[in-house]
């Protein structure tokens, strides 16, 4: 046995992953560090609670684009690892950090929902050993989050929201020279692009308006040159009534039909527009009165493109209806 410095011939050589690469298993040797994450074979792993994954990447002095895929399923509950599962109806409010900085936030609501996070790392943010850490934290944990925001969502989001969440995939690639995106995206595409997060998408191919059943949604900092990265964005909000045909003919269906009729009446009177109650920066707290204009049955919400911190939009209650995001439009600076 020979040695060189502190190493020996028996030391395991850890080969980094080389971009572009999709990391879809927790068994790869480049996944060197885990905390609160149980490794998987067909997924990277499942979080017991807030935790992280550290992967050795051969960046070679280049910037990297990182895309993280998270999801919830029937096992995504608090206490799943001990068999003492506790299922709750509240959405999960999750921070995704990397290299010590908050990148984006996601809301996950219900089962079989998927969320995507995307961010760029500069060469200066990647250490010489190539270790890139992706942290997934509940909104109540960690520093750099406004106590005002935490108070605003207390009781409205699930405690220990990361418990049981799947880390399905991490993609590392070089950022393209220029991204070409449309000036307008429908509600579902806004979530797929990670501009907003409203509870996660069940069908990643879905297009059209996005229901905002949690009464809130996150607006995220997005990638350079992508939709919403410059200037301001306008989000068109509306409402819809729940369909009554799928509800059995009981008092619940009667109630639903009454709600549908009341909502239809409001639409006829052009008074069915939703209202935004507050907009809070995850880092800095309340941003003051939001810029919103009501026209008939829709509300146009105008926001600055987030740069250093995601924004949380809280909606006022919508009696007899579900608020929806119809589409988003990028405004000139």
TrEMBL record:
It comes from the Bacteria. This is Uncharacterized protein. The lineage of its organism: Bacteria, Bacillati, Actinomycetota, Actinomycetes, Streptosporangiales.
């Amino acid at each position: 046995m020979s040695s060189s410095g502190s190493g020996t011939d028996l030391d395991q050589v850890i080969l980094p992953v080389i971009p572009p690469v999709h990391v879809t298993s927790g068994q790869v040797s480049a996944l060197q560090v885990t905390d609160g994450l149980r490794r998987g074979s067909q997924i990277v792993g499942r979080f017991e609670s807030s935790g992280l994954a550290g992967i050795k990447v051969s960046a070679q002095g280049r910037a990297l684009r990182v895309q993280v895929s998270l999801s919830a399923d029937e096992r995504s509950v608090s206490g799943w690892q001990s068999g003492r599962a506790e299922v709750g109806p509240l959405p999960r409010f999750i921070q995704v950090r990397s290299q010590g900085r908050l990148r984006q936030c996601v809301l996950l609501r219900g089962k079989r929902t998927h969320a995507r996070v995307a961010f760029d790392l500069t060469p200066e943010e990647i250490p010489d050993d190539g270790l890139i850490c992706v942290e997934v934290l509940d909104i109540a944990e960690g520093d750099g989050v406004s106590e005002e925001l935490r108070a605003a969502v207390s009781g409205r989001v699930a405690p220990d929201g990361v418990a049981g969440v799947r880390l399905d995939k991490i993609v590392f690639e070089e950022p393209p020279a220029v991204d070409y995106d449309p000036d307008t995206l429908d509600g579902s595409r806004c979530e797929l692009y990670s501009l907003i997060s409203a509870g996660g998408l069940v069908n990643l191919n879905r297009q059209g308006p996005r229901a905002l059943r949690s009464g809130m949604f996150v607006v995220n900092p997005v990638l350079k040159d992508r939709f919403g990265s410059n200037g301001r964005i306008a989000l068109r909000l509306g409402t819809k009534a729940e369909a009554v045909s799928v509800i059995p003919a009981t008092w619940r269906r009667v109630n639903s039909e009454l709600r549908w009729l009341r909502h239809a009446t409001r639409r006829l009177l052009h008074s069915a527009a939703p209202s935004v109650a507050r907009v809070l920066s995850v880092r800095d707290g309340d941003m003051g009165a939001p810029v919103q204009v009501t026209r008939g049955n829709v509300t146009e919400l105008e926001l600055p493109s987030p740069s250093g911190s995601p924004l949380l939009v809280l909606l006022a209650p919508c009696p007899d209806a579900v608020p929806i995001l119809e589409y988003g439009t990028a405004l000139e600076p």
